Amino acid sequence: MVIHKQCSMVFNIFHFVNNNIMAQKCINYQCKSKFGKKFLSAQQSVCNYYHVPFKPYQKVCSICLEICIKHFNRLGKQMKSQECIFNNEFPARHIYIELSDSDDEETEDNIATSILSEDIHENDLSNYIKTVWYDFIKNPVDLQLQNCKNFINSEKHNINETNNQINSLIKQISIDLSKLHCNLYKFNNCRQFHYEKEVNIIDNNPDKIDTDNDAVVVIKNKTIKPLNLPPKGQPRRCSLRSGDKVYAMKYSMCRPWFEATVESPISKTYFNISFNDDGNKKILNNKNLAYINTSNTQYPIGSRVIAKFQDMNIKLTDNFYVGVIAEKPKYLNNFRYMIFFDVGYTQYVCHEDIRLLCYQSKIISDDVHENVKEFVKAYFNKYPERIMVNFNKKQLVRAELNSKWSLAKVVNTDASLVQLKFFNQENEVHIEWLYRGSNRLGPIYNQLNKNIHDVQPTTSMVNVYKKLNRPYIKLENAAKEKKIIKPNKHKSKKNVIEIISINEFSSKKQTNSGVIETINLPPDRPKPLPYKAHQCSHLCMLWIQYDYSKTKTMNTLSIPLHFGFERTIIQDENLKSSKVVYKTPCGRIIKNEKEMYNYLKTVEYGKNIMTIDFFNFDYFVNPLALYKETEYFNYIDDISFEMESKQISAVNCLNHTSPPPLKYITEREIKPGVNLNLDTKFLCSCDCTDNCENKTKCSCWQLTYECQKKIPINYKDNIIGYNYKRLYETVYTGIYECNAYCKCKKTCLNRVVQEPLSSTLQIFLTEKKGWGVRTLVDIPKGSFVCTYIGAVYKEKEAEIHGMKYGDEYQAELDYIEIVQGIKEGYETDADQLDIESDSKSSSSSEEEEFNPGQVIKSKIPIESKMSLRQNIQNTNKKTDGKHQLSKLNIKQKIGNQKESLRKYFDYSGTYILDAKFSGNVGRYFNHSCDPNIFVQNVFVDSHDLRFPWVAYFALTYIAAGTELTWNYSYTVGSVENKVLVCYCGSEKCSGRLI
């Protein structure tokens, strides 16, 4: 009981002190009154003036009360004089947070008592307000309302004038910037072509070539490319943001497009657009928007674009019209794009006068105008085959003009276009360019109405048409290009036309429908400090608080940008190329990899995990680029189930199926009977403490060097193996990385393949090749991608397993055969060179036609035992049909004298790596005849030559969204009665895998 009374006393004392403290605080948040001032109770009117909820215990100081009284006094005078009360200054609102107990609230009686006990100043204020209110009631209220309305209109007018002045100034600045941009990036309409060597062309029009004539057309150089045509590739469609400049459809698809600005996105496909010329706003679909800049890669066939329309005199106009790419740039069309415009015209346009639409449907004909829908649909359904009319100048042909058939004369031809001069009944002349496959031409129209499948006329009919000088129909293939070469001396002097097949990108179905987005860096990220002269140390990066555990979801190249680094692309002094510079957290400028490595080493490189491979100095690599698929049927977040350091997603844009079940592993599975010793005591290790910079003192580097000396492959600049953790050339004898028994740290420059997965990869379903892998970020050349992991079988067990379940995921660990085959191939060629040098008494004509010494001079591009034998077999005969001593026989004789290295092991057969049921992402890589990754054998946990790690590295720069492919190195015809068709789609495609 005593304790309860004591607690009650303490509570009452605390409550009394708290009320006194609160009572001594002025309700005006901006009050600067000090202690000792007189405080009075705050009435309702005072609380309203300071925007504070009324409470009975609230106080106001005498100074703030006087300010309130003056304000109401000023309002009263304005009311009496019938002035607008809005023309005044009012206190600003503040956020009010009340922290009090419900017990502190007083009753109505207490409130009345406190008000009556107030000072005379508050009574005067109350009386004065009542007097002013009564006087105001007497005055006309309408006049006051009218004054307030006039005041508001005047302020609105002033704001509008100021706004118009700002808009006018912004518009003028935009015009000035546009002029400056045009002057800086002014394009010359005349196309410039680069000829590597002498070109001697008698007649460059293949349509005029007559194989019955004896005229000779000579092209000494086959590679003629315009200087302003970018390389081939897939254009990137980036997502639109507020403030982006675009071209937009203002009226209709058949009218010009105008420049506009994205105000705000409504959804993923619709945007609020404001046109720059008149400020009109409109909501448009991304199909009706085009990027403001031209693409840095060529546009594929079937791309929806807008292009500058040309008049009859081939003069460029400033207006863009929408259309679709129908023919790729090539030599025959002067390296221009043929475009089917939605307005119904067809013309050739240069690359710099074309802009890509922000989105297009998978079916091309769904987007074009109704006027040309059926024609475009029929064209791309038959592409690359197309019906064309062959013309000569001054020929006459029936053609459609204004829904009437008229007679027209051929004025000129331009690749797939013909210029016709129409003569109608009113004798008015109309000149127009037409596509030579248009149904407005009489021969095409008649052929379509007859519905004849064989549109190609016979040879006899072609000769008749030529003699009568009439146009005739022929079937052309847009994916094939004619080239005229010099005829053989031993053959007839007639012209020889060689047809070279080129695999063309098929635009009927686009498997890559995603967009390239830009990774948003957090605004509160550490940024570089202003540079001050200092000596760099660990303090330069200590303040950014780098944490490797936070980087799992980040792109590897973007990690430094999240932690204090800045990456800038600048032009060099001669303005011919660009280069990248990094700004460190301490403000220092880094220009190359060597400087960056020295900087990281200075700031204690070994203690932080931000390694040198986090940085790249190629200006075309975008560390913030991220590919995202916009439309899909099935999506899996991570097929590795967090076993990899980065998520590997799976997406299906074709159907609802998922990847086949797989036991995902990150280490090899050793099957029974496979003797793999992973004891670290059997490894050669180094004792380096300098991150293995000095390769001459590192035992692991020296293993790589010594093995390479056994084969005659010269490396550029004598760089063998890794160069700042990147591999630019294959080391056929393998790379020996530092291992767990080495004394060097994990940041060692000779530890790459053993590091966790650093590339952001995605599994996706292709149309013809099954499941494949693409990168979601940019990958620099030489970067490590991943390894190929599976179960290790003996050769016989693998054959049984393959016959039962399939062998499509089996890889042979034939490192010994590859190295021995390359070495023996070189020695065989050297012996053959000696034989040929001893037999120089043969005829001089034979020596000119076959020179085996040249085989030795060139680098031997051999990646497998099978391809080595095939290359040797191709040189067994002389051109006159006489046989010489076969190189393959020489190899077999030498091979009988030299036994395989596998005789030193208990098991003489090869081992097989099978990823059918257990493996990693490496099992999904598809084949390509023009690959972008290559295979490298690496020794990490074992130096047993029978068990190398199979690793993939980037052969070239790989843009985000690109499929990763490597060359399987199969030999066509190596398996009897078995044919595998190649669907890689590259220009170097051989058509078959086996």
Automatic annotation (TrEMBL):
<feature type="domain" description="Post-SET">
    <location>
        <begin position="978"/>
        <end position="994"/>
    </location>
</feature>
<dbReference type="InterPro" id="IPR041291">
    <property type="entry name" value="TUDOR_5"/>
</dbReference>
<keyword id="KW-0175">Coiled coil</keyword>
<dbReference type="Pfam" id="PF18359">
    <property type="entry name" value="Tudor_5"/>
</dbReference>
<dbReference type="InterPro" id="IPR001214">
    <property type="entry name" value="SET_dom"/>
</dbReference>
<feature type="domain" description="SET">
    <location>
        <begin position="759"/>
        <end position="969"/>
    </location>
</feature>
<keyword id="KW-0539">Nucleus</keyword>
<feature type="domain" description="Pre-SET">
    <location>
        <begin position="684"/>
        <end position="756"/>
    </location>
</feature>
<dbReference type="InterPro" id="IPR016177">
    <property type="entry name" value="DNA-bd_dom_sf"/>
</dbReference>
<keyword id="KW-0489">Methyltransferase</keyword>
<dbReference type="InterPro" id="IPR051516">
    <property type="entry name" value="SETDB_methyltransferase"/>
</dbReference>
<dbReference type="GO" id="GO:0005694">
    <property type="term" value="C:chromosome"/>
</dbReference>
<keyword id="KW-0808">Transferase</keyword>
<keyword id="KW-0158">Chromosome</keyword>
<dbReference type="GO" id="GO:0032259">
    <property type="term" value="P:methylation"/>
</dbReference>
<feature type="region of interest" description="Disordered">
    <location>
        <begin position="834"/>
        <end position="853"/>
    </location>
</feature>
<dbReference type="GO" id="GO:0005634">
    <property type="term" value="C:nucleus"/>
</dbReference>
<dbReference type="GO" id="GO:0010629">
    <property type="term" value="P:negative regulation of gene expression"/>
</dbReference>
<dbReference type="InterPro" id="IPR003616">
    <property type="entry name" value="Post-SET_dom"/>
</dbReference>
<dbReference type="InterPro" id="IPR046341">
    <property type="entry name" value="SET_dom_sf"/>
</dbReference>
<dbReference type="Pfam" id="PF00856">
    <property type="entry name" value="SET"/>
</dbReference>
<keyword id="KW-0805">Transcription regulation</keyword>
<protein>
    <submittedName>
        <fullName>Histone-lysine N-methyltransferase eggless</fullName>
    </submittedName>
</protein>
<dbReference type="GO" id="GO:0008270">
    <property type="term" value="F:zinc ion binding"/>
</dbReference>
<keyword id="KW-0804">Transcription</keyword>
<dbReference type="GO" id="GO:0003677">
    <property type="term" value="F:DNA binding"/>
</dbReference>
<dbReference type="InterPro" id="IPR007728">
    <property type="entry name" value="Pre-SET_dom"/>
</dbReference>
<dbReference type="Pfam" id="PF18358">
    <property type="entry name" value="Tudor_4"/>
</dbReference>
<dbReference type="GO" id="GO:0070828">
    <property type="term" value="P:heterochromatin organization"/>
</dbReference>
<dbReference type="InterPro" id="IPR041292">
    <property type="entry name" value="Tudor_4"/>
</dbReference>
<dbReference type="GO" id="GO:0046974">
    <property type="term" value="F:histone H3K9 methyltransferase activity"/>
</dbReference>
<keyword id="KW-0949">S-adenosyl-L-methionine</keyword>
